[in-house]
Specification:
Blueprint: H1 7-28, H2 34-49, E1 65-68, H3 74-84, H4 90-94, H5 124-143, E2 155-160, H6 161-165, H7 167-179, E3 184-190, E4 193-194, E5 197-198, H8 207-214, E6 217-222, H9 226-238, E7 244-249, H10 272-281, H11 294-324, H12 326-336, H13 344-351, H14 359-373, E8 377-381, H15 385-388, E9 397-398, E10 407-409, H16 414-427, E11 431-437, H17 445-453, E12 459-463, H18 481-486, E13 492-494, H19 499-511, E14 517-520, H20 537-540, E15 545-548, E16 555-559, H21 564-575, E17 581-585, H22 589-593, H23 597-603, E18 610-613, H24 622-625, E19 630-632, H25 643-649, H26 654-665
Parallel strand pairs: 1-2, 2-3, 3-7, 6-7, 8-10, 8-11, 9-10, 11-12, 12-14, 13-14, 16-17, 16-18, 18-19
Antiparallel strand pairs: 4-5, 15-17
Length: 668
Amino acid sequence: MSPPPDLLLARKAVNTIRFLAVDAVEKAKSGHPGLPMGAADVAFVLWSRFLRYDPTAPDWPDRDRFVLSAGHGSMLLYALLHLAGYDLPMSELQAFRQWGSKTPGHPEFGHTPGVEATTGPLGQGVGNAVGMALAGKMGATRFNDAEFQPVAHRVFALASDGDMMEGVASEASSLAGHLGLGNLIVLYDDNAVSLDGSTALSFSEDVPARYAGYGWHVQSIDGHDHDAIARAIDAAIADRARPSLIACRTHIGYGAPHKQDTSEAHGAPLGPEETTAAKQKLGWPVEPAFLVPDDVRDYFRARAAEGAALRTGWEQRFAQWAHDNPVKAGQWDAIWTRAVPDDLLAQLLAAAPVVAGATREHGRAVMQKAASLVPGLAGGAADLASSTYTVIQGGGDVSPGAFDGRNIHFGVREHAMGAVVNGMAYHGAFRPYGSTFLVFSDYMRGAIRLAALSRLPVVFVFTHDSVFVGEDGPTHQPIEQVASLRLIPHLHVWRPGDGVETALAWGMALERRDGPSVLVLTRQKLPPIERPGRIGERELRRGGYLVAGDEDPHAVVAATGSELHLAVGARAALATRGVRLNVVSMPCVEIFEEQDAAYRDSLFPAGVPVATIEAGRTDPWRGLAGPAGLTIGIDRFGASAPGPVVAEKLGLTVESATMRIAEWLGRA
């Protein structure tokens, strides 16, 4: 803990933070001034006395992480980053919420230096912080020793009442307490006000008691008392066996004479008159706006120099440690750089099963090979590992107080799993994955979307991908999920049709560094697909490729996943009638759409009619099939019956596909 500044300087610094936020919101005529005004004391004490950071090296591996889970209060974070010396000049604060600025309405990872996570959808940031803390514990277990602890950082999150209401934060906090993540400290901005008014309208639970029930170390303090804040953070850091919650009672809109403690300060500018009144009440100059006093600037400059010294000292000790421990240093590089072998895909394709089987079974086999080649691969399932087949064999379990394993048991917490694996990816070490049934991806959609927005290299494995789940019925039979996932920008959705394509999906997902990938796998067995000898890795990588065909086809049939063999079967059946069908496999539509027009046109020649087959909504395929094309799929909910019966009743058999294509082509 660094020594505190004198009281007058501390108050001046806190008001600098407050009014940078107020002025930015006023200039933008949009934003949330209340939280920055109320939480400025807590944030200042943390950043000035505890947080380990170096603005010149924002990706220093052993920096402390600060997550603003209450992302609507983004100007609090931007003010801190600016004062701390990150590459966020005053001009960016003055461009708050404007086109092209580095100060968007909610913080965005990779867009603004020093922002550790994309936050704003409430509760997600708490889950991200849990993932960061988990990754930190896993890293510390692997690399720390008596001589040097290269992983000693802590994770701090600032959460709001809204975060505490969201279920995803509750799930993640429950998991954190179970695991004993003593490197995690959540500062709860307990101001009892949300957008619609007092939290008493809908929220009367005892949050500290709930967190105590989760197994957290809990404290309640006055969030404007700097000594109390410092003592609480110090005590939280000292408890290494439990995560900590510090409930900080604050006043939203602190200092605004007419809007303090009201919802009016939450999500709208104070207005010129109230801004002036607030500045006058707190003894702050009305003009100029965006004022940073020289002594406040100097104080933060000195704090940044302390952080730089910490970082360079760490680097020197790390270099000696790496020299003395070459094996561990090699493991460090592999995990922190997320390195994969240059021939990863080739090796996975060589390991791909070529027998009949469910693609979840193929995924299990391929995943074991991937785990041997990518030591940072780690993750788990939402209490479904026995069904999703995503256990790293011999990888060991992550469990309370034991973090040397690679298999994480998330429990029945899909919401939290998505946020936690994102947090692991934000952290920087490991290649995280999470798995559940495809239909439950709906519970994770917020996290998947944020992974795509943040370009996180996360792998989401979803099995039981269609109505062929059978007896479990329509509640467990996905219809619209694949189509809806494909709508998310920057997300690669893989639906492999056999072992080869499953290996392809895993390989390209692990090679990818600029975004997440979804693997959609079957429960039911599928036959292996025969491919021409000319189909190699180059063609497979293109997201869509010709499985079987002629130079002059009557039609092209595109299919994915478990329907690929239906298209192949229909082709063989119609060939006896003199109908020439080309079959195109489309395991990843997004990658196929990135290919050059010449390649795409070679698979779907102009003037040749197109049919599609996929066990899901048909409308999204209309863009490929065109108005006269045929789209075979499902535009209703499923039914409870054995899988083969469901397939027959819903027209997803080789015989049904053959008949419909023949009728469409006038060859019935």
